[in-house]
Amino acid sequence: MSKSSYNNIFFIIILILSLGLRSSLAFTNLNSLSFEESLSPLFGDANLVRSPDDLSVRLLLDRYTGSGFISSNMYQHGFYSSMVKLPADYTAGVVVAFYTSNGDVFEKTHDELDIEFLGNIKGKPWRFQTNLYGNGSTHRGREERYRLWFDPSKEFHRYSILWTPHKIIFWVDDVPIREVIRNDAMGADYPAKPMALYATIWDASDWATSGGKYKANYKFAPFVAEFKSFSLDGCSVDPIQEVPVDCSDSVDFLESQDYSSINSHQRAAMRRFRQRFMYYSYCYDTLRYPEPLPECVIVPAEKDRFKETGRLKFGGTEARERRRNRRQQRRPEIEIESDPDDRKLL
Q1: Of the listed 37, 116, 226, 255, which one is catalytic?
Q2: What's the whole-model pTM score?
């Protein structure tokens, strides 16, 4: 077993021990909805397959079309969650997205919160990203990219997004992987208009895997992503209605739930996740943002790991870099990826 495999196993054990029983309480009392109760087909109807009991749905991508669904309602703040199992084998160029948006209603001033899985080459870790936009601020991307510490195609895992007037938290199972605290300096960049939940699978061969180096290969089609155990909580509103709805009770409910706060064990797990598996952060990308955007919390231990591009400093020291170069020269038959996304975290 490789050193990186041992490191990943060690990380998983530490996560389990550090989270303990208290962290699991965040997701034990979720309402579980059927597809008919909460969701509607979005596109690719023939590639959207609902289970006989209507409690799960499979999204398929073939060479002709992808597929997707949307929540039946839009919510003024909310908690959006689902158990998801991703496609197996070779999935380069295939993106599975679980996100909130209001782009269909507010085309030029839309808000969005994203979890996007970026496809993988068999045998390599899955990569994914989170992002947020407020009021059409697409020129100020707030993306972070990570590797998963498990194979998401082997079994179901829960992915969740919490959005309140004060904070946004992205969860993977019981691990909070990212927290954004609203402050006044963010202004309209903080999502504020009602959003719906979306889930899609589609061909993003031009950018998703190693910047488009690896394309979707349809001999592995259909690519299948499966969703179940849907949970949606929030204040259901009509975004174009003239009479405003009082959502204060709904916000109070959201903020009273365990998933709206991060305890000390979960915060330690989040810190370990970000140290071990985050390989890009806009907060450390000084080429794009000479001054960090206002919500960024600069963590010295994180900052030291990143170059000015927001990407990892591979090798760490000149000596380690020279050793890696010599190993590459001795093994010319092994392809060394030019895209730093595919390098191992050292």
Answers
A1: 116
A2: 0.84
